[in-house]
Amino acid sequence: MLDGLRDFAKSWPGKILGAFLLVGVAGFGINNVIVDLGSNTVARVGDEEINSREFLRAYQNQANRIARQIGSVPTASQAEAMGIPTAVILGLSEGAALDTLSAQFSMGVSESKLAQLLREDPSFHGTLGTFEPALFTQVLQSAGWTEAEYFEARSDEARRDQLTTALFADTDMPEVAAGLINDYATATRTIDYIVLSGTSIESPEAPTEAELAEYLEENQSDFRTVETRTVKLLDLSLASLAATKEISPEAVKAEYEATKSTLTTPERRAIEQVSLATPELQAQFEAGLAAGTDFDTLVAEAGLAPSSLGTLTQAEITDTRLASAAFGLAEGGFAIIEGIGGKRAVHVSDIEEEREPSLDEARDDIVARLAQAEARNEINDVLDQIEELRAAFQPIDQIAERFGLPVYEAEVTAGGTELAVLPNLAAEDYARVSQAIFAAEQDRLIPSIPLSGSAHLWFDLEQVEPARDQTLDEVRAEVEAAIVAERIDAALASKAEDIVARLEAGEALADIGFELSAFPQLSAPFTRFGSEDGLVDRTVASAAFAGGPAHAGAVLNESGEQVVFQVVDTAEPTAPLDDVALESINAEARAGLISEFVAAVREDAGLRINQQALNQLLVQNYGQ
Fold first, then answer.
1. Dihedral angle computed from the Cα positions of residues 155, 161, 167 and 169, in that order, rounded to the nearest 10 degrees
2. Rounded CA gap, 163 and 107, in Å?
3. Distance between CA 89 and CA 609 in Å, rounded?
4. What are phi and psi of 293, to 5 degrees?
5. Where is the PpiC domain (predicted)?
6. Would you state the pLDDT for residue 129?
């Protein structure tokens, strides 16, 4: 039967039927990926496309933030588990939804507005806090942006801002809601309280042997060792190989004579400036400059605070006008120059003269440089030799001895923090090296681990100590301490309940505290978020606000202490929210409305995701 189907598929009628089937299938969904969404399109909102370049740029930013937390860039499967692709798509789709709406309203951005946005972007501000064209080009290149992409992105942002500002700029929180928030946030209470301690109860009995064994059995998961692997490690890097080099005094002297002109420390100047924003200030400083009045006097008379630009060489100053003026002044002098925002006074407060170091001063740097040069010339050859020796199953100790390299020994756990014994291993590589150690098998050839900067790491797995349950003899003291602590906590909680019952029955906290040698303390008035002095934390404050006047209760505070309290005063807000707090609340309300609005626009326009292209993009760039 299968042979018959194959023969039919090769015939003209079969090919025609196959074509109809393909078109039919395409009509039921394949076109969504192939026809409707191109291979370079990750998603579409309405008529706005989110292309692979946009997605990868946003995804990389998010992945970098995650990498700083977990120590490595997540793979595609790890990112999927964390929800990173979905979050990036949703974030980009919000902007695309607003772009769709702004296009319907024919909104635009003028070139003058784009120029203003460019000048105000702090990413491109130089030493003086003003726009620097060279820095603009440098930042775009390092971020992988073209100028056209940057201006298109800023245009999109400006149109979205126009849209949301026009719709929600004057949207404020209703007065009733603001009043409720004010009542919630600023109402205060005052309590009398005592803190119970071990002296408030009788000492608990020591646990018996049977109780210790029973507790350990019930809580065995808390008393386990972690798997530990003992390894010998050898690292080959420029730093480790350079440390094995001996540089002769003659070579150092010869290098010094050949390069001492380049070792000269350039002149550096401490520079500060003030903006002369008004004609009066300009006239005052110009008159002072002509009269020889010093800069500090003029600044004090004008009531200005100069801003420091730091101690810089002339080459470090990107503003040529500033560099020329500052390095043409004597120490203590100042000059008035033009700036983007008007004139400014530039003052040189200190000058570090250019100087040539002596041979003794330069010796350490020269030795390090020559050793690095020798290591750089040899490292590839040494790497090849070590790999050959490893392939011949030579142990780490013998290889290290042959090349004069140190061997490091560590008992490594899964976290890899013990790898700090390797001085040339960066902390961000600990996780990768520990993963390789825990993936290794004893008596098997273990490949090298390539590291940044042409460095490599090898290790011998000496011993594996698997995770196991600890015995009672090993953890007797810890188990006994845990049981005693539980009994103390239970006794304190029971005592606190008794005290609360007596307070509710009408007894005074002072009388009860006297019996326990724990005298009540009167708190300062506090809000639901605790007191300003920190003596009443958020947990105690929440418990105090759980009842009305004269409310009594007991609670474990954030330090783990048992606190018994009684409310002695309540106070409602006497003033409305201040302008700063009210504006913050209004801003939060507007942000919530904008978020709901954007979600509705996106839902109306329709979000379609090219899952096939998305998965392929992630795997190609970040691995499975």
1. -150
2. 8
3. 8
4. -70, 135
5. 247-364
6. 66
Residues in a beta bridge with 607: 45
Structure tokens at 474: 């090993």
CA angle 333, 336, 339 (to 5 degrees): 135
Which tokens is 486 given? 């539980």
Strand segments, DSSP code E, in 104-214 are: 188-196
pTM of the model: 0.51
The residue with tokens 């979905």 is: 86
Which residues does the chain have with pLDDT short of 50? Answer: 1-6, 8-36
CA distance 14 to 6: 9
Question: Which of 492, 507, 445, 528 has the alpha carbon at shortest distance from 184?
Answer: 528
CA separation (Å) from 607 to 45, 161, 612?
5, 21, 15
| Chain centroid, CA 133 distance in Å | 29
Q: What's the pLDDT at 117?
A: 80
Sheet with 449-450: strands ordered across: 408-412, 228-236, 456-465, 449-450
| Strands 562-571, 188-196: pairing kind | antiparallel
In angstroms, how far apart are the furthest CA atoms of the chain? 109
Alpha helices in 169-208 (DSSP H): 175-186
Contact 324, 331 (CB under 8 A): no
**What CA–CA distance (Å, rounded) separates 597 from 588?**
14
